[in-house]
Specification:
It contains 44 helices and 16 strands. The protein starts with 23 loop residues before the first helix and ends in a 5-residue tail after the last helix. A seven-stranded antiparallel sheet has the order 13-12-11-10-16-15-14, covered by helices on one side. Strands 2, 3, 4, 6 and 7 form a five-stranded antiparallel sheet that branches. A four-stranded antiparallel sheet has the order 5-1-9-8, with no helix packed on it. The longest helix is centred in the C-terminal third of the chain and has 36 residues. The protein is α+β, with helices and mostly antiparallel strands and 1361 residues long.
Amino acid sequence: MIDPSSSEEESDDEQREPLAVAHPRAHLQHSEPVAPNLEVPHPHATSHHMRSASPGVTQSTDTLSVGVASGSLGSGPGTSNTSISGTPVRSTNLPRPTSPAPSLISEKTVTDSIDPQEKQEREEEQRKTRLQLYVFISRCVAYPFTGKQPTDMTKRHTKVTKSQLDTIQARFQSFINGDTQIAADEAFQNAVQNYSEVFLRSERVLRMVQAGACSHHDFREVFKNNVEKRVRSLPEIDGLSKETVLASWMAKFDCIFKGDDDNKRPRLQQSLHSELILSKEQLYDMFQQILGVKKFEHQLLFNALQLDSADEQAAAIRRELDGRRQKVTDMERNRKLMPRFVLKEMESLYIEECRAAINVLMANLESLPVSKGSTDSKYGLKNLKKYNHRRSSVLRWSRSQASLAKLEGDSADSDTQLSKMDVVLTFQLEVIVMEVKGLKSLAPNRIVYCTMEVEGGEKLQTDQAEASKPMWDTQGDFSTYYSLPTVKVKLYTENLGMLALEDKELGKVVLRPTPLSNKAPEWHKMTVPKNAADQDLRIKIACRMDKPLNMKHCGYLYALGKGVWKKWKKRYFILVQVSQYTFAMCSYKEKKSEPTEMMQLDGYTVDYIEQASDLEGGRFFFNAVKEGDSVLYACDDENESHLWVMATYRATGQAHKPTPPLTPAAKNSTISKIQGDADRARKHGMEEYISSDPCKFDHHSMFRHLQTLTLDFRLNDPYCSLGWFSPGQVFVLDEYCARYGVRGCYRHLVYLSDLLDRTERGLMIDPTLIHYSFAFCASHVHGNRPDGVGTVTHEEKEKFQEIKERLRVLLENQITNFRYCFPFGRPEGALKATLSLLERVLMKDIATPVPPEETRGVIKKCLENAALVNYTQLSNEAKIDEDMGQDGQEIVPSRRLEELIHLAELCVDLLQQNEDHYAEAFAWFSDLLVEHAEIFWSLFAVDMDQVLAEQPPDTWDAFPLFQILNDYLRSDDNLKNGRFHQHLQGTFAPLVVRYVDLMESSIAQSIHKGFEKERWELKGNGCGTSEDLFWKLDALQAFIRDLHWPNAEFGCHLEQRLKLMACDMIESCIQRTDSSYQQWIKKGVTFISTDYIIPTEMCAMINVILDAKNQSLKLCAVDGVDVHQYHTKIDELIDKALTGMTQGLTSKLMSVLESTLSKLSRYDEGSLIGSLLSFTQNVSGSGRELGQAYVNFTRNCMDQIRTKVTDDLWIINFFELWYTLQMQSLCSWLSERLDHSLHPYQCTCLVHIVRKLYSDFELQGVMEDKLMSKAYSTVSSRMTTEEATCSLTIGSRGGDEDGDVGEDETDRRPKVTMREAVGEDGANFVSKLTNASSSVVGKVGNVVGKGLGGLTSKLGGGSWF
């Protein structure tokens, strides 16, 4: 843009119409962005599977009451006023402990104000809570039976920390500085530099990293999306596809991004297992970290809880289910124990839900494989009588005496009775004969072998061996139904007798193994025949009898009962598990597969008793008691009695755990060693947690505490989880909820509460995760669950409404601050999921969709506020609102305008980023996003109007602002000719008109003053004034054209005005130039000497007109089309001026020729002065000097024109015209003298002139057809004749005058030399003409003495040239 020079006429300032938009602070409430997240890139928010609520935020500083009263939300079914340890709840709720991982918010200020003793008590209470939680978690991990670890969860990428971000920034800066060895082209370097400046160093990226929402994958995806646009815009290259370029760029990016991290990767892999399927040991370790449990505490609990014993864990589950069912029965009788529901009718439904949940758990437990036929047996759970919740009366026993089986039916008699066939077991035996000793009577080379058989089964034989080395390693595998099988092993040697039918038996041994027998090889003495030579035979045998899966214990016991085992004697007993809920005590005899007697353990309770003095046999007694029945057992070994009691305790499912009596004599016995784990646990205070009854705890409160700690732990792991739990965490939490009856709605409500707490603290939580949990709670509260209507408590409903309102406020805030909550569109799809969640939150119930107008209204309000938030942030960054500079001085208007232009650039970048990263999310509300942009620009318009109003009049520094804004707005179809765009046009239209007015006045004055002072020196394509004029006109038109004025009518008006202005200015320029030219022509009218040279000033004037002709097409026409007919007018004027100039110049030049010819006229024949001049010819010269002077004149003029005039076409045309006029003039002069011969002086002069004119103009580029004109032919013919005549005349003066002839010849020779010189300088064609001329001259001299006939014949033969 050019600044118009000062004009003599000052015009009044135009009044601007203000935009009809109030100041932003007047009608929009400013809201600061709450979630300090980056503006970038991600990823993974939309593809999560709906498994269960999975956390992923930061650490909570909320508090949790260890013992929650029944009125709290944490109180689930059957809540009691007891703490986790079973003690009464304290009067004040204790704050919930925080995660062992470092919290984002310090609690030092809270703890400092607490009394040290109270602080210690609180910490101890927290430790107890966590230990008790770990006991329950350990049981869930040790024996899961409700599900498996999910394998379909979305892969999580590792997140970027603050230190890693600094490292990444340093790596990219090193690449930009050229400090790396990575080779790259300029395009890639520009892409990396833009990525580093716009993304890596963005404050929003830093916020996103601090929020834990930025992964390495996000960094890569943002760069990939950026370079894809750049690569697509590059031109096609043959042999190199754009996909190859993109892949190469991404490989280089990875090299820059990773740096030297490859060496550190093995160390990092150890902490990245949380996304995989974890083993039990890894799950134990994870929850030790979550709950802050020490390793030795875990070991104590592991041993005391017998977590490695599947039987013990299954028995614990049965006891837990027994307690839950008993609790349901209590609630059914006393409705006050139930939570308060929304409807009274839900109390019965709640009982149904509890029983259904228990039955599901029973079915899951029953489905676990415990023995052959356990899942398809008629005694499986499906045929057991379920817990009949409709029975009118139940015989209540205390939980210390009642068993699970008792609660499964009305009485023991009503249960399905087992038959003896149902408890038949299958045993696998392995018999290995290894070696025999004592074979002395046999020859060393005799063959011996063994046979082995199980009674009732097949017989097997070992390999053969020599008597000197009777060793084998043969294994025999047998299967038998006998509980006390008999294994016979016999030793044989081959019989050498001819008539022997069988081999000779050397000895045998009979074994009676049991599952508890020693499995190591043992030596046995063989029974040999009486007449055998070797009486001391011993054999080494390993006999192993495997324990069936459904056999829980076996051994010999004394027993006495009322219905079975009525006689006190020793029997072989086996405890058989028929199913998860059915056990039987069976006694067996040898060679029998079925039990002789059996007792189903349903409803029995086992415990230690004192030794009975009236019974013989047995030292350690215990009994199994049932209503109306009692069975007494005894054995001789204390350890054996303890094993029997514990196995029976697990089988009965009783709640009371038998405690063996400790006597001083038994302190060093085996029972003390077995109890070592329990004693050690008791020593460290673990007995309280081990023996605690799960049914006495408020598992809802405990689960809330557990879930919060797990969520905190998850947010501090290396993964960018966004609130989603890992598969192992989901698995354990699901198992806990199912096993201990945590309500699903409550679980998701407290989960939502935790997620919202962390989101409000600025952490990034996946809105899809919140959507899942909220949808679950909404369907539950509104009664639209897929599995039917469920119970809803008052606490759940109130908590849901509270969370719904919090969530609505949060979502509106996130949409308002969408650039900061979801920077650069990361996480991927998060904003779109947020809009979808908002629509769900606005629904009144789960079935009725929210009216579209309501959703649009909320989003519209959010986007209106977002416009203010975004603009306020940008204006603060550009410091547009500051009135004082850093040095305390007031900011000058020009500085404020520069800041405004910078702000405009920032605004354009911001809206382009909105289009790139957020337009897809707002696809259904695109009109609202357009309105958001209009409001954003209206806020900018207020500052723009204020800054422009402060500018001094007639300053044009604001036009770049218009170009920046207009270029963006006209490229956006939605904002083009919108409110702000029209306001922008209305603001700048008066400025443009004023600018054009001043420029027109300035250019007109510059023409007037410039041509007055013009010295007509060559400059560019014209003179100084013309160059300045055409540059100003072109710059003005280019400036207005670059404005791309959006209003077509006003744009056409500006264009027409500028073309008209250019036409007028060029016309004025032409007129002034032509006037000056005519003055210069007149200056030299009296000076017509051959010394005349065309002045440089006249050449400059010609150049001005010629340049005006060239510029007029561009300046007066529109894209080469003369729309307004201005160019035609100017073209006619230019042609007229050029014609006049050409005529004037030719007239001037022709006057010199005429002067020369007038000098020659003095030698005309018959004139007095001619006679006088003839006598003085030898003194004055031959006439060649005059001709050479004219030739020099023409050459000087041609050189002046050729070097000073810029238009070659005009030069050629001018030379053609000048040449033609000269020839016509010469022809006319000679025609006047047809009757007279020319004087030699005249002839010599004209011959020289004619020759040189032809050659010189030929050298200047005049075409041959113009040179060989009719006038030239006439002149050439006449001059040939005249030259010959002159030669004869000179020769007739006398042949003796050798000197004269010599002079003439000498005079002719230089002519030839000149022509050759010209030919050397010019062209071959001129050389040929020179040679031809010399040849003609020589021939004319030779024929002087031969007569006129010969001369005539020679002259008639060709041209004189």
